Every structure is written in structure tokens, then in C-alpha cells.
Amino acid sequence: MVEETINSNTNKAKANNNKPKSVYSWNVTDVQKWLRRHCSDYYHLYVENFIQHDITGRTLLRINDNSLLRLGITNDSHREIIWRQILKLRLKTDIMEIRDLQRRNTNNMFYDFSIV
């Protein structure tokens, strides 16, 4: 029984290590990596703007079209493409948060039933 618990805890630890870092905890370097991966055509044009404005993951999720303009992204098509990638990131982040909430609720329900 004790061995099963240890193995279960080890498996949970491994699963948590594979979980991607939350966008809310991204630093400026993480945002640069995201920009390079998802907006590679414009990375070299705007990476310095993102660095100068200290754009973190939390900030990135709050950016809108006006924010991108104030960041110096004046080309409409570049701004639209970057904005679309930010919207995709927001959606993905929201989905992950919903799944985490569902998992927590499922675990709490199991815990509540096991007490009774």
C-alpha cells in the first residue's frame, strides 16, 4: 500500500514537470521565445520593442491592437498577424485554466465523497 502511494506521488510529480509554464509566469525572455516561434517573420523587427517595454506573459495577454501600435508596430498587416497570435495564446490559456478548474473540482468531489 505504501509503495503504491509512493509510485502514485512520483507519477504525479513527473506529470507536473511536463506541464507547460503558465503564460502568467512568463518573463521577458519567455515572451521573446514565443514571439520568435509564433511571429518569426517579424521577430527581428519587433523583439527590441518588446524588450524595451518589458513585455512579460501577463502583459502580453492584456495587449490589444492599440497597445501594439504604441509598441511601435505601425504596419497594419504585421500588427494584425501578431494580434491574431496573441488572441490564440489567450484562448489557449483560457482553455488550460478551465481544464485546471475542472480537474480541481473533480478531485474535490472525489475527496468530498471519500470523507462521507
TrEMBL record:
It comes from Phaedon cochleariae. CDD domains: SAM_aveugle-like (cd09510). It holds the Pfam family SAM_2. One of its GO terms (biological process) is cell surface receptor protein tyrosine kinase signaling pathway. This is SAM domain-containing protein. GO terms for cellular component: cytoplasmic side of plasma membrane. Residues 26-92 form the SAM domain. SMART domains: SAM (SM00454). Gene3D superfamilies: Transcription Factor, Ets-1.
